[in-house]
Amino acid sequence: MFKTESRWMNKNGKASAGTLIWILLIAAVVYGGVKFAPPYITYYMMKTEVENDAQTAHLYDDQKIVSLIMIRAKEFELPIDEKDIVVERREGEIEISLNYKVDVNFFTGYVKTLFFDIRTVKPIKAKQ
To answer: Whole-model pTM?
Structure first.
């Protein structure tokens, strides 16, 4: 009969060294993605929420905007304090900015700190 050879196996039917290297590389990429993706996804979700709060700034005072942001920060389990949120109203516009950091643990031995900065400037609409 015909003997088919697999490109993933050597002549003895065992996995080749190249196959093992590819498996380790793919596993490392997946592990890194699992560790790094959630903080960045949360960052983009929080950034969108802050932009939405800036667009509706004509409805609320500064303290109410800070409290809304803090509610969302608690929902996303972000390490943000009220003092980290800066709301500035200027003539015709509002600026909301906040900074925070998230620690990512690798194998409980190495910690990488990710720094996030959210800053948005939007025009203030007239009250309707």
So the answer is: 0.77
Query: Cα–Cα distance between 69 and 85 in angstroms, integer?
Result: 8
Q: How many Å apart are CA 100 and CA 113, to the nearest integer?
A: 10
Within a domain: 95: yes
Per the structure, the count of domains in the chain is 1
Those residues of the chain that have pLDDT short of 50 are 1
Inside any domain, residue 52? yes
Is residue 79 within 8 A of residue 100, CB to CB? The reply is yes
Q: Which residues of 82-121 are buried (b: 16+ CB within 10 A; e: fewer)?
A: eebbebeeeeeebebebebebeeeeeeeeeeeeebebebe
Q: Running DSSP on this structure, what letter comes out for residue 82?
A: G
Is 101:115 a contact under the CB 8 Å cutoff? Answer: yes
* 7 inside domain: no
Examine residue 9 and state whether it is found in any structural domain, yes or no: no
